[in-house]
Structures are given as C-alpha cells and as structure tokens.
Amino acid sequence: MADAEGLKAADNYGLDIPVSAQSYYLKGLEYADWGIKDRMSRIFNKKSGKTVMLAFDHGYIMGPTSGLERIDLSIVPLLEYADSIMCSRGILRSCIPPTFNKPISLRFSAGTTILNELNDECIIDVDEAIRLNASCMAIMVSVGGKYEAKTIQNLVRTADAGNKYGIPTLGVTAVGKELVRDARYLSLATRVIAENGATFVKTYYCEKDFEKVVAACPVPIVIAGGKKLPENEALEVAYKAISDGASGVDMGRNVFQSEDPIAMIKAVKGVVHDGLSAVQGFELYNDLKQIL
Ligand code: 5RP
User: N or C: which end of the chain has fewer CB within 10 A?
Assistant: First the structure.
C-alpha cells in the first residue's frame, strides 16, 4: 500500500533550466518510435554513428560456406568484436551463447536456396523476433527480380509488424540475376526499400557515384562486404563506402575467411569508427596479425 503520510514534497523542478533540444543521431529516424530508436542505438555506435555488423547468415541459402563450417570455432571467438551480429534463427539457437548480449540482426525471410532461383521467400513470425530479442529483422528484397512483388510484400509486412512492436526492419538488396552493382540500380533498389518501410538498408558498394546512392536513400545504408578480397582491398571498399556516406558495414566473408579474422574485424572497426584510412587500417591489420 502506498504511504499516505510523511511523503517528501516534490520541489526540484529546475525552473531556470530549459529542457534541452533532443535530436536523434541516425539519418531519417528523428520521428521513429522509442523502441525503434532504442534498438537502432544498440546496433549503431552512439559516438561514431556507425556500425560494424558481422554477417554469417550465408548458410541459409548456401549450406556450409567456407569459414562457417563450425560456427562455434570460427564465429563465436569473433562475437565480442562485432557491434551487431546477423544470422538465421537456426544458427542463433544452436551455436550462439545467449550470454554474449550482442544486438541481433535476425535473418527474417527464407525460401529458395542456391540450388534454385533465389528470393522466392516467406517471412518468419514476428513472435520469433520478440522471443529471440532481435534488434532488427532482415528481409531480402529483390527489386527487378522475378520475385520483386513477393519480396516487397514481405518487406511491407515485416515493417508493419516491426512498427507494431518497435523492432527495426533491415531491407537487404537481394543477390540474384537482377543485381547490377552500379549506382543506377542500387539507388533505385535502396530507395524502393526505404520508401516501403525499411528502417535501414543493406546494399553493395559501387565505385562510381555511390555517394549519390547514399544521398538518395532517406535512412542509413550499410554495405555488404561481398566476395573475399585481399585484406587491403576489402579495407579500401569499407573506407570508400564510409567516405561516401555509408553508416557502416555488414561484412561476412571478408572477415571470417580472412587469414586472421580477429585482426581483420579490428581493422574494419578502425576504418568505420575511428577514421582510419584504408592504408592505416591495413597497417593495423598487419600489426595485430603479427602480435596474435
Ligand atoms: C546476403 C547477405 C549476407 O549477409 C551478406 O552478403 C554479407 O556477407 P558478405 O560480406 O559475405 O557478402 O545479406 O544477402
């Protein structure tokens, strides 16, 4: 029962202190709901405004990918260095200790594999995202592909559910025949994904005019790493994408297939969060590799 007597009177109203103007630090999310902002601020570093996500969801369409044969051996030691992890619910439940407490970008659509035409997908129930404490739901969107309408509908339904429960939606530019890595295609795809409700967008870097892709997308963009490159080249891609306005990377093979994955993810973080150039990032990679 609440005490009715002896209560200390409220008298600390700070009448001479104006309420400070508040502004959210991520592009296009000023008017998003509290739960969305809270979860996004787990994924994106509040000081740099950027993120290094570690993607290891490849098996959901590719089976046992090189470097992901034993998640417990290759990925679990990397978890502490990632700002966020991106994986399927199967890998999350079977291999990722729930004590790591990293924000989870949950692979939220599934369907065909590389043995068939990709992107004929359905979405998972939002209850799963809540049960697994997901910080965002990642949906494949195949703009221009055979399953364009279906994947955009998946995105729309995910964003509806996400808005209901305060969970961000990550719209992923799907891999497939339609994916052309130029600014024309990527700006169309990312803009369509943002307009249809994604809280942030994952796409691929392109050499020419990537800054225009970023400028035309009203919400944050993170880039996928793509196929394995030599470490200096992968760091160069990360550096150029960040310089062109990307809000981070969601990198898989260029980290877990690296000769030294821990040194590599630390070097990527140096480029993404600490303003290192690609050359400085590569020096850091080599320094860390030597002392490991
Ligand atoms: C596929 C994905 C993967 O997570 C993505 O490709 C990241 O991995 P990588 O850096 O190896 O390309 O979303 O659509």
Answer: N
Cα separation values, 162 from 127, 130, 134, 193, 226, Å: 11, 10, 11, 15, 27
CATH number for the domain harbouring residue 176: 3.20.20.70
Number of domains in the chain: 1
Determine, yes or no, domain membership for 2: no
Nearest CA to ligand 1 atom 4: 55
Q: Which atom of ligand 1 is closest in space to residue 140's alpha carbon?
A: 14
Q: Is 28 among the domain residues? A: no
161: domain range? 34-234+245-259
Q: What is the whole-number distance in angstroms between the Cα of residue 28 and the centre of ligand 1?
A: 24
Distance CA 270, CA 287 (A): 13
**What digits encode the pLDDT tens for the residues 114-151?**
999 999 999 999 999 999 999 999 999 999 999 999 99
Let me know if 228 is a catalytic residue: no
Q: How far is the CA of 225 from the centre of ligand 1 (A)?
A: 7
